[in-house]
Amino acid sequence: MTLSAIPIAPDIYWVGAIDWAVRNFHGYTTHRGTTYNAYLIIDKKITLVDTVKKGFEHELLERIASVIDPSKIDYIISDHSEPDHSGTLREVVAAVKPEKVFASVVGQKTLARHFGDIGIPVTAVKDGYKLSLGKRTIAFMETRMLHWPDSMFSYLVEDQLLFSQDAFGMHLATAERFDDELSWDLLERMSSDYYANIITLYSPQVAKLLEKVAASGLSFKMVAPDHGPIWRDMARFGKMVENYGKWSARELVRKAVILYDTMWHATEEMARYIADGIVAGGVKAEVMPLGSSSRSDVASMMIDAAALVVGSPTLNNNVYPSLADALTYLRGLKFGTPVGAVFGSYGWSGEGTAQLKEYLASMNCAVIGEVKTQYVPDAGTLTACRDLGMQVAAKVKELLPE
Ligand code: FEO
Protein backbone atom coordinates (compact mmCIF):
# COMPACT_ATOMS: atom_id res chain seq x y z
CA MET A 1 0.00 0.00 0.00
CA THR A 2 1.34 3.41 -0.86
CA LEU A 3 0.30 6.97 -0.25
CA SER A 4 -1.44 8.37 -3.31
CA ALA A 5 -0.42 10.83 -5.96
CA ILE A 6 -3.14 13.39 -6.67
CA PRO A 7 -3.87 14.10 -10.35
CA ILE A 8 -3.93 17.86 -11.01
CA ALA A 9 -4.11 17.80 -14.83
CA PRO A 10 -3.89 15.02 -17.45
CA ASP A 11 -0.64 13.12 -16.76
CA ILE A 12 0.43 15.60 -14.09
CA TYR A 13 0.35 14.71 -10.39
CA TRP A 14 0.99 16.28 -7.01
CA VAL A 15 3.45 13.96 -5.24
CA GLY A 16 4.50 16.12 -2.28
CA ALA A 17 4.35 15.67 1.47
CA ILE A 18 2.03 17.07 4.14
CA ASP A 19 3.75 18.24 7.33
CA TRP A 20 0.84 18.40 9.74
CA ALA A 21 3.09 18.78 12.78
CA VAL A 22 5.58 21.56 12.00
CA ARG A 23 5.05 24.65 14.15
CA ASN A 24 8.46 26.30 13.75
CA PHE A 25 9.69 26.88 10.22
CA HIS A 26 13.06 28.59 10.71
CA GLY A 27 11.56 30.90 13.29
CA TYR A 28 8.18 31.39 11.60
CA THR A 29 5.39 29.97 13.75
CA THR A 30 3.40 27.77 11.38
CA HIS A 31 0.14 27.45 13.31
CA ARG A 32 -1.40 25.29 10.57
CA GLY A 33 1.61 23.21 9.47
CA THR A 34 2.67 23.19 5.83
CA THR A 35 3.12 21.08 2.73
CA TYR A 36 6.22 20.49 0.61
CA ASN A 37 4.79 20.23 -2.88
CA ALA A 38 6.44 18.27 -5.67
CA TYR A 39 4.99 17.47 -9.07
CA LEU A 40 5.32 14.55 -11.46
CA ILE A 41 4.86 14.99 -15.22
CA ILE A 42 4.35 11.86 -17.30
CA ASP A 43 5.71 12.45 -20.81
CA LYS A 44 8.41 10.97 -23.01
CA LYS A 45 10.82 12.34 -20.44
CA ILE A 46 9.18 11.68 -17.07
CA THR A 47 9.93 14.71 -14.93
CA LEU A 48 9.83 15.49 -11.21
CA VAL A 49 9.55 19.18 -10.29
CA ASP A 50 11.14 19.75 -6.87
CA THR A 51 11.53 17.31 -3.99
CA VAL A 52 10.67 17.63 -0.30
CA LYS A 53 12.21 18.37 3.09
CA LYS A 54 14.50 15.75 4.63
CA GLY A 55 12.49 13.16 6.50
CA PHE A 56 9.66 13.21 3.94
CA GLU A 57 11.47 11.47 1.06
CA HIS A 58 9.59 8.22 1.68
CA GLU A 59 6.27 10.04 1.36
CA LEU A 60 7.44 11.56 -1.95
CA LEU A 61 8.67 8.23 -3.33
CA GLU A 62 5.52 6.40 -2.22
CA ARG A 63 3.27 8.91 -3.94
CA ILE A 64 5.36 8.63 -7.11
CA ALA A 65 5.22 4.83 -6.87
CA SER A 66 1.41 4.99 -6.87
CA VAL A 67 1.72 6.20 -10.50
CA ILE A 68 4.98 4.83 -11.88
CA ASP A 69 8.12 3.04 -10.81
CA PRO A 70 10.27 5.95 -9.48
CA SER A 71 13.27 4.59 -11.40
CA LYS A 72 11.47 5.59 -14.62
CA ILE A 73 11.93 9.30 -13.82
CA ASP A 74 14.26 10.89 -16.40
CA TYR A 75 14.51 14.50 -15.24
CA ILE A 76 14.44 16.26 -11.89
CA ILE A 77 14.06 20.04 -11.75
CA SER A 78 15.12 22.02 -8.69
CA ASP A 79 13.39 25.40 -8.86
CA HIS A 80 15.00 26.55 -5.64
CA SER A 81 17.74 25.07 -3.47
CA GLU A 82 16.31 25.75 -0.01
CA PRO A 83 16.36 22.48 1.96
CA ASP A 84 12.56 22.21 2.26
CA HIS A 85 12.48 21.54 -1.50
CA SER A 86 15.94 20.25 -2.37
CA GLY A 87 17.06 18.72 0.92
CA THR A 88 16.32 15.19 -0.25
CA LEU A 89 17.81 15.55 -3.74
CA ARG A 90 20.69 13.21 -2.96
CA GLU A 91 18.36 10.50 -1.61
CA VAL A 92 15.90 10.92 -4.47
CA VAL A 93 18.69 10.84 -7.08
CA ALA A 94 19.98 7.63 -5.47
CA ALA A 95 16.52 6.06 -5.62
CA VAL A 96 15.58 7.30 -9.09
CA LYS A 97 18.91 7.49 -10.95
CA PRO A 98 17.67 10.20 -13.32
CA GLU A 99 19.27 11.09 -16.61
CA LYS A 100 19.54 14.78 -15.65
CA VAL A 101 18.95 17.23 -12.81
CA PHE A 102 18.24 20.83 -13.81
CA ALA A 103 18.58 24.05 -11.81
CA SER A 104 19.13 27.72 -12.60
CA VAL A 105 22.66 28.95 -13.29
CA VAL A 106 22.95 30.18 -9.70
CA GLY A 107 21.13 27.06 -8.47
CA GLN A 108 23.82 24.82 -9.94
CA LYS A 109 26.34 26.47 -7.60
CA THR A 110 24.00 26.75 -4.64
CA LEU A 111 23.03 23.09 -4.74
CA ALA A 112 26.71 22.13 -4.68
CA ARG A 113 27.36 24.43 -1.71
CA HIS A 114 24.42 23.02 0.20
CA PHE A 115 24.46 19.35 -0.60
CA GLY A 116 27.87 18.60 -2.10
CA ASP A 117 27.87 15.69 -4.51
CA ILE A 118 24.25 14.65 -5.07
CA GLY A 119 25.34 11.75 -7.26
CA ILE A 120 24.90 13.44 -10.64
CA PRO A 121 26.17 16.71 -12.17
CA VAL A 122 23.53 19.46 -12.15
CA THR A 123 22.69 20.96 -15.55
CA ALA A 124 22.19 24.73 -15.47
CA VAL A 125 19.32 26.27 -17.45
CA LYS A 126 19.28 29.96 -18.32
CA ASP A 127 16.39 32.38 -18.09
CA GLY A 128 14.09 31.67 -21.05
CA TYR A 129 15.54 28.22 -21.82
CA LYS A 130 12.98 25.74 -23.12
CA LEU A 131 13.27 22.05 -22.29
CA SER A 132 11.30 19.53 -24.34
CA LEU A 133 9.77 16.65 -22.41
CA GLY A 134 8.19 15.08 -25.50
CA LYS A 135 4.67 16.37 -26.01
CA ARG A 136 5.30 19.14 -23.53
CA THR A 137 7.81 21.93 -23.05
CA ILE A 138 9.05 23.56 -19.87
CA ALA A 139 10.14 27.21 -20.11
CA PHE A 140 12.32 28.48 -17.27
CA MET A 141 12.10 31.98 -15.85
CA GLU A 142 14.65 33.24 -13.35
CA THR A 143 13.13 34.91 -10.28
CA ARG A 144 16.33 35.93 -8.53
CA MET A 145 15.87 36.93 -4.88
CA LEU A 146 12.32 35.64 -4.88
CA HIS A 147 13.26 34.67 -2.48
CA TRP A 148 16.67 33.05 -2.94
CA PRO A 149 19.36 34.04 -5.45
CA ASP A 150 18.82 30.82 -7.40
CA SER A 151 15.00 30.80 -7.50
CA MET A 152 13.25 30.20 -10.80
CA PHE A 153 9.80 29.42 -12.16
CA SER A 154 9.10 26.46 -14.44
CA TYR A 155 6.23 27.01 -16.88
CA LEU A 156 4.63 24.07 -18.62
CA VAL A 157 3.81 25.72 -21.92
CA GLU A 158 1.17 23.43 -23.43
CA ASP A 159 -0.75 23.11 -20.15
CA GLN A 160 -0.31 26.78 -19.20
CA LEU A 161 0.72 25.52 -15.78
CA LEU A 162 3.17 27.55 -13.71
CA PHE A 163 5.31 25.86 -11.06
CA SER A 164 5.93 28.96 -8.97
CA GLN A 165 8.07 27.51 -6.14
CA ASP A 166 7.54 29.62 -2.98
CA ALA A 167 5.69 32.46 -4.74
CA PHE A 168 1.91 32.42 -4.22
CA GLY A 169 2.36 29.66 -1.63
CA MET A 170 1.39 29.51 2.01
CA HIS A 171 2.18 27.44 5.08
CA LEU A 172 -1.06 25.50 5.33
CA ALA A 173 -1.40 21.74 5.80
CA THR A 174 -4.74 20.51 4.50
CA ALA A 175 -6.16 17.33 3.04
CA GLU A 176 -7.43 19.50 0.16
CA ARG A 177 -5.02 20.13 -2.71
CA PHE A 178 -6.81 22.94 -4.58
CA ASP A 179 -7.68 26.52 -3.72
CA ASP A 180 -11.34 26.13 -4.70
CA GLU A 181 -11.80 23.52 -1.97
CA LEU A 182 -10.93 26.08 0.71
CA SER A 183 -12.43 29.41 1.78
CA TRP A 184 -11.01 32.60 0.30
CA ASP A 185 -10.71 34.09 3.79
CA LEU A 186 -8.41 31.25 4.86
CA LEU A 187 -6.32 31.48 1.68
CA GLU A 188 -5.96 35.24 1.96
CA ARG A 189 -5.01 35.14 5.64
CA MET A 190 -2.44 32.37 5.22
CA SER A 191 -1.00 33.99 2.07
CA SER A 192 -0.75 37.34 3.81
CA ASP A 193 1.07 35.72 6.75
CA TYR A 194 3.43 34.02 4.30
CA TYR A 195 4.10 37.20 2.35
CA ALA A 196 4.73 39.20 5.54
CA ASN A 197 7.22 36.70 6.93
CA ILE A 198 8.97 35.39 3.82
CA ILE A 199 8.61 37.89 1.01
CA THR A 200 8.28 41.42 2.46
CA LEU A 201 12.02 42.06 2.24
CA TYR A 202 11.91 41.26 -1.48
CA SER A 203 8.95 43.48 -2.31
CA PRO A 204 10.91 45.53 -4.91
CA GLN A 205 11.68 42.28 -6.76
CA VAL A 206 8.02 41.24 -6.55
CA ALA A 207 6.94 44.46 -8.25
CA LYS A 208 9.49 43.85 -11.06
CA LEU A 209 8.48 40.21 -11.44
CA LEU A 210 4.78 41.08 -11.73
CA GLU A 211 5.74 43.49 -14.53
CA LYS A 212 7.94 40.85 -16.20
CA VAL A 213 5.16 38.23 -16.12
CA ALA A 214 2.58 40.73 -17.43
CA ALA A 215 4.97 41.72 -20.26
CA SER A 216 5.61 38.06 -21.14
CA GLY A 217 1.97 37.62 -22.18
CA LEU A 218 1.90 34.22 -20.49
CA SER A 219 -1.50 32.96 -19.48
CA PHE A 220 -2.22 30.51 -16.73
CA LYS A 221 -4.71 27.71 -16.28
CA MET A 222 -3.12 26.58 -13.06
CA VAL A 223 -0.44 27.84 -10.66
CA ALA A 224 1.27 25.22 -8.53
CA PRO A 225 3.42 26.59 -5.68
CA ASP A 226 5.73 24.65 -3.38
CA HIS A 227 3.61 25.18 -0.25
CA GLY A 228 -0.13 24.99 0.32
CA PRO A 229 -2.93 24.56 -2.20
CA ILE A 230 -2.68 24.66 -5.99
CA TRP A 231 -4.44 27.59 -7.67
CA ARG A 232 -6.90 26.41 -10.31
CA ASP A 233 -9.60 29.06 -9.86
CA MET A 234 -7.92 31.74 -11.95
CA ALA A 235 -10.32 34.46 -10.79
CA ARG A 236 -9.10 33.80 -7.26
CA PHE A 237 -5.51 33.66 -8.43
CA GLY A 238 -6.04 37.05 -10.09
CA LYS A 239 -7.17 38.42 -6.74
CA MET A 240 -4.03 36.97 -5.15
CA VAL A 241 -1.85 38.66 -7.79
CA GLU A 242 -3.63 41.91 -6.92
CA ASN A 243 -2.80 41.27 -3.27
CA TYR A 244 0.85 40.71 -4.16
CA GLY A 245 0.76 44.05 -5.98
CA LYS A 246 -0.74 45.75 -2.93
CA TRP A 247 1.60 44.10 -0.44
CA SER A 248 4.70 44.76 -2.54
CA ALA A 249 3.68 48.42 -2.92
CA ARG A 250 3.36 48.57 0.91
CA GLU A 251 -0.17 49.95 0.80
CA LEU A 252 -0.86 50.91 4.42
CA VAL A 253 -4.09 51.27 6.34
CA ARG A 254 -4.98 53.22 9.45
CA LYS A 255 -3.70 50.57 11.81
CA ALA A 256 -1.20 50.61 14.67
CA VAL A 257 0.51 47.52 16.08
CA ILE A 258 1.30 47.72 19.79
CA LEU A 259 4.09 45.27 20.53
CA TYR A 260 5.17 44.77 24.13
CA ASP A 261 6.32 42.41 26.81
CA THR A 262 5.96 42.80 30.53
CA MET A 263 7.55 41.55 33.77
CA TRP A 264 5.04 42.51 36.48
CA HIS A 265 2.22 43.90 34.31
CA ALA A 266 3.20 47.59 34.51
CA THR A 267 4.19 47.83 30.82
CA GLU A 268 1.10 45.79 29.99
CA GLU A 269 -1.11 48.31 31.80
CA MET A 270 0.48 51.11 29.80
CA ALA A 271 -0.23 49.22 26.57
CA ARG A 272 -3.94 49.08 27.40
CA TYR A 273 -4.17 52.87 27.73
CA ILE A 274 -2.16 53.49 24.58
CA ALA A 275 -4.48 51.16 22.66
CA ASP A 276 -7.48 53.00 24.08
CA GLY A 277 -6.04 56.31 22.89
CA ILE A 278 -5.34 54.97 19.40
CA VAL A 279 -8.89 53.66 19.06
CA ALA A 280 -10.34 56.90 20.44
CA GLY A 281 -8.28 58.68 17.79
CA GLY A 282 -10.04 56.71 15.06
CA VAL A 283 -7.28 54.22 14.16
CA LYS A 284 -7.35 50.43 14.46
CA ALA A 285 -5.14 49.02 17.22
CA GLU A 286 -3.70 45.50 17.21
CA VAL A 287 -2.18 44.61 20.57
CA MET A 288 0.51 41.93 20.42
CA PRO A 289 1.78 40.77 23.84
CA LEU A 290 4.97 38.83 23.24
CA GLY A 291 4.13 36.48 26.11
CA SER A 292 1.43 34.99 23.89
CA SER A 293 2.36 36.09 20.35
CA SER A 294 5.29 34.88 18.31
CA ARG A 295 7.59 37.18 16.36
CA SER A 296 6.03 35.95 13.12
CA ASP A 297 2.50 36.65 14.41
CA VAL A 298 3.64 40.23 14.89
CA ALA A 299 5.14 40.33 11.39
CA SER A 300 1.82 39.13 9.98
CA MET A 301 0.08 42.06 11.67
CA MET A 302 2.68 44.49 10.31
CA ILE A 303 1.91 43.85 6.62
CA ASP A 304 -0.29 46.96 6.30
CA ALA A 305 0.24 48.79 9.61
CA ALA A 306 1.10 52.48 9.49
CA ALA A 307 2.39 52.61 13.08
CA LEU A 308 4.45 50.48 15.43
CA VAL A 309 4.27 51.26 19.16
CA VAL A 310 6.74 49.26 21.22
CA GLY A 311 6.89 48.74 24.98
CA SER A 312 9.46 47.05 27.16
CA PRO A 313 10.44 46.87 30.79
CA THR A 314 14.08 47.50 31.53
CA LEU A 315 15.78 44.28 32.63
CA ASN A 316 19.42 44.41 33.73
CA ASN A 317 19.98 47.71 31.87
CA ASN A 318 18.48 46.36 28.65
CA VAL A 319 15.22 45.85 26.81
CA TYR A 320 13.41 42.67 27.66
CA PRO A 321 15.06 39.91 25.56
CA SER A 322 11.82 39.02 23.76
CA LEU A 323 11.68 42.58 22.37
CA ALA A 324 15.23 42.30 21.04
CA ASP A 325 14.24 39.05 19.34
CA ALA A 326 11.03 40.39 17.76
CA LEU A 327 12.52 43.73 16.70
CA THR A 328 15.56 42.05 15.13
CA TYR A 329 13.18 39.86 13.12
CA LEU A 330 10.95 42.79 12.09
CA ARG A 331 13.97 44.95 11.18
CA GLY A 332 15.20 42.23 8.84
CA LEU A 333 11.92 42.19 6.96
CA LYS A 334 12.14 45.97 6.26
CA PHE A 335 8.49 46.88 6.65
CA GLY A 336 9.36 50.59 6.56
CA THR A 337 6.53 51.44 8.98
CA PRO A 338 6.46 55.25 9.08
CA VAL A 339 5.14 56.08 12.60
CA GLY A 340 6.66 54.87 15.87
CA ALA A 341 6.40 55.39 19.61
CA VAL A 342 7.89 53.73 22.68
CA PHE A 343 6.88 53.10 26.27
CA GLY A 344 7.85 51.03 29.28
CA SER A 345 8.34 50.70 32.98
CA TYR A 346 11.66 50.44 34.78
CA GLY A 347 12.99 49.94 38.28
CA TRP A 348 16.11 52.03 38.70
CA SER A 349 18.07 52.57 35.48
CA GLY A 350 15.49 52.73 32.65
CA GLU A 351 17.50 52.10 29.46
CA GLY A 352 14.66 50.10 27.88
CA THR A 353 12.83 52.86 26.03
CA ALA A 354 16.07 54.46 24.80
CA GLN A 355 17.08 51.13 23.26
CA LEU A 356 13.63 50.73 21.72
CA LYS A 357 14.10 54.12 20.06
CA GLU A 358 17.41 52.93 18.60
CA TYR A 359 15.68 49.87 17.17
CA LEU A 360 12.93 51.95 15.60
CA ALA A 361 15.44 54.43 14.16
CA SER A 362 17.29 51.53 12.53
CA MET A 363 13.97 50.46 10.99
CA ASN A 364 13.36 53.95 9.50
CA CYS A 365 10.39 54.30 11.82
CA ALA A 366 10.08 57.88 13.12
CA VAL A 367 9.50 57.97 16.87
CA ILE A 368 6.92 60.63 17.67
CA GLY A 369 6.59 60.07 21.42
CA GLU A 370 7.70 58.22 24.53
CA VAL A 371 6.23 57.43 27.93
CA LYS A 372 8.33 55.79 30.63
CA THR A 373 7.55 55.29 34.27
CA GLN A 374 9.30 53.99 37.37
CA TYR A 375 7.81 50.76 38.77
CA VAL A 376 4.06 51.07 38.14
CA PRO A 377 2.15 53.70 36.16
CA ASP A 378 0.13 56.18 38.24
CA ALA A 379 -2.95 58.00 36.97
CA GLY A 380 -0.84 60.73 35.37
CA THR A 381 1.26 58.19 33.49
CA LEU A 382 -1.80 56.36 32.24
CA THR A 383 -3.22 59.65 30.98
CA ALA A 384 0.08 60.27 29.19
CA CYS A 385 -0.18 56.78 27.64
CA ARG A 386 -3.68 57.50 26.36
CA ASP A 387 -2.46 60.84 25.00
CA LEU A 388 0.42 59.05 23.26
CA GLY A 389 -2.11 56.75 21.61
CA MET A 390 -4.09 59.78 20.44
CA GLN A 391 -0.90 61.35 19.02
CA VAL A 392 -0.08 58.16 17.12
CA ALA A 393 -3.61 58.05 15.70
CA ALA A 394 -3.42 61.71 14.66
CA LYS A 395 -0.10 61.14 12.88
CA VAL A 396 -1.43 58.06 11.09
CA LYS A 397 -4.48 60.00 9.91
CA GLU A 398 -2.27 62.86 8.75
CA LEU A 399 -0.19 60.42 6.66
CA LEU A 400 -3.25 58.55 5.37
CA PRO A 401 -5.94 61.17 4.74
CA GLU A 402 -9.31 59.85 3.66
FE1 FEO B 1 9.82 26.85 0.71
FE2 FEO B 1 12.22 29.04 0.14
O1 FEO B 1 11.58 27.40 0.60
What does this structure look like?
This protein is an alpha/beta fold and 402 residues long. It folds into two domains: 6-248, Metallo-beta-lactamase, Chain A; 256-395, Rossmann fold (3-Layer(aba) Sandwich), CATH 3.40.50.360. The protein contains twelve helices and 23 strands. It has helices at residues 57-65, 83-86, 89-96, 105-115, 184-199, 203-216, 234-248, 266-280, 295-302, 321-333, 352-362, 379-399, and strands at 6-9, 12-14, 17-19, 24-25, 28-29, 34-36, 39-41, 47-49, 75-77, 100-104, 122-125, 130-132, 137-142, 152-156, 161-165, 222-225, 253-260, 284-289, 305-311, 314-315, 318-319, 339-346, 366-374. It binds MU-OXO-diiron. Residues 80, 82, 84-85, 147-148, 166, 226-227 line the site of MU-OXO-diiron (FEO).
Topology:
Blueprint lengths: L5 E4 L2 E3 L2 E3 L4 E2 L2 E2 L4 E3 L2 E3 L5 E3 L7 H9 L9 E3 L5 H4 L2 H8 L3 E5 H11 L6 E4 L4 E3 L4 E6 L9 E5 L4 E5 L18 H16 L3 H14 L5 E4 L8 H15 L4 E8 L5 H15 L3 E6 L5 H8 L2 E7 L2 E2 L2 E2 L1 H13 L5 E8 L5 H11 L3 E9 L4 H21 L3
Parallel strand pairs: 8-9, 9-10, 10-11, 15-16, 17-18, 17-19, 19-22, 22-23
Antiparallel strand pairs: 1-2, 2-7, 3-6, 4-5, 7-8, 12-13, 13-14, 14-15, 20-21
Helix pairs in contact: 5-7, 5-9, 6-7, 8-12, 9-10, 10-11
